[in-house]
Amino acid sequence: MKLTKLLPLAALTAAFVIPDEQVMNQVAIETHETSSTISHKVPSKEQVHNCLEDVFSKGLRASKNTFDQALDQASEAGDKIAGKFGDAVANTKSWLESASTTSHGHHGHHGKPNQTVYQLIAESKYTTKLTKLINEYPDLVKALNGSAANYTVFAPTDHAFDKIPEHAPKPSKEDLKKVLEYHLSAEFYPAGRVLVTHTIPTLLEGEDIGFEPQRLSTNIGLRGLTVNFYSRIIAIDIFGTNGVIHGVDSILIPPPTTVDIITLLPGEFSTLELGLTKTGLLPILNDTSNHIGGTVFAPSNFAFLKLGPRINAFLFSSYGQKYLKALLAYHVVANQTLYSDAFYKAEGVDQSGIPKGLFHVDLPTLLEDKSLSIDIGRYGRLISIKINGFADVTIEDGIAKDGVVQVVSSVLIPPKSVGGVLQQWQGEELSEEELRERLEPFVGQDEL
Ligand SMILES: *[C@@H]1O[C@H](CO)[C@@H](O)[C@H](O)[C@H]1NC(C)=O
Ligand SMILES: *[C@@H]1O[C@H](CO)[C@@H](O)[C@H](O)[C@H]1NC(C)=O
Ligand SMILES: *[C@@H]1O[C@H](CO)[C@@H](O)[C@H](O)[C@H]1NC(C)=O
Ligand SMILES: *[C@@H]1O[C@H](CO)[C@@H](O)[C@H](O)[C@H]1NC(C)=O
Ligand SMILES: *[C@@H]1O[C@H](CO)[C@@H](O)[C@H](O)[C@H]1NC(C)=O
């Protein structure tokens, strides 16, 4: 793998701007080993890469199951979470709590708070670096010390900052502010709400998603509760008068682009990347000036595998290329960013709420006149996203700078018209002829 590819990859885990390979390697060590076992050996590129894949896609492998199994796991997970949180709080050596006890003699975070979230952070001995950074931006200090909103702060501990290599070049003040803003929400998300939420809006304006708030995703996995798949929540519910703080163990880096996510995770998306490259769609997706946000339903390598060797051989032959292009275009939605619990539409209408219970939307794809029929079922933490009544999103809300990646474990095949009635593909075995027939109407469309 080329170094140029690895750079943003490291940023996806936990770095600011990564200048060279060695620095990047250090970051990789820090992100996948616990603080007590940090070794200073420099891992191979391979290890760096595995580490990232591990962090991002653990959920992928674990989630190739049915809705029922998901339900079982979710309720099981629910039981375990309470215990996990207990540990997490203990593990942080009472973190902010000790700061407020030392400065005020008695209370921890149980009494009624009388300090702002800014004051709590400023007085904690575990967040001195964050404090120093916030202090560079008087408007942020004023906000976090004021009552204009009840804020949620994902506060990186000093240890999280230690993961930044010493000699990494300092990002511009403007970029650093964006990083800070990505840790702050103007909405109130105590832990109980975080648990039943999949994405959280931050103060960071998403330039490539129509200046809507850039969102964070929350994930429950083997590492407990994480934000954007890599930053572990290690302390919860430190309440201030104007909001709540959760401690995180890695700095939250504003997200990479959709194309970065696809190209940097070959273990999941190498087939998709190959297809997008062969058909010339990759540069179109990568051009953020031609879309305002968007949703890519990204089939995993596993999804392509399920189509069988004959269909893959056809699609990836030079003869099949135009069919492949039509097929992939059917997975891309421009200008509408559909998270599992929020929806940004480019055309001015702010439809950011997705109601609890059932929600249906048809999303137009790059394939002319062909929409994807999306059904979202939301019951607390448990969310099911079904496409065309059949395919499941297996990993939700891969947050991208220019949209969102929803991973599907089946390739999505356009419906066919039988006597004027659209027949959706329901996963039945598909012959090459049948696939060609379904894609024929779209082959060679002008804009593709
Ligand atoms: C916060 O409240 C405690 C009593 O609960 C008091 O001793 C302390 O002085 C208060 N601090 C501030 C900054 O008002
Ligand atoms: C924060 O607000 C308090 C009043 O709530 C004020 O006494 C304090 O000086 C403010 N701190 C900063 C740094 O502005
Ligand atoms: C913050 O929360 C408190 C308590 O729920 C509420 O009274 C107050 O109006 C909220 N402030 C803002 C700005 O929403
Ligand atoms: C996407 O575009 C950026 C510049 O906008 C470029 O640096 C990057 O290499 C491109 N990625 C791919 C996979 O073409
Ligand atoms: C997305 O929006 C941009 C800007 O409004 C527009 O130029 C483009 O044609 C739209 N793309 C699609 C596929 O609708």
Automatic annotation (TrEMBL):
Key word Acyltransferase present: no
Keyword check for Signal, yes or no. yes
Domain FAS1 residue range list: 114-252, 256-412
What's in the keyword line of the UniProt record?
Signal
Residue spans crossing the bilayer? none
Q: Where is the signal peptide?
A: 1-15
Q: Tell me which InterPro entries the record gives.
A: Adhesion/Biosynth-related (IPR050904), FAS1_dom_sf (IPR036378), FAS1_domain (IPR000782)
> What name goes with this protein?
FAS1 domain-containing protein
Q: Which organism is it from?
A: Heterodermia speciosa
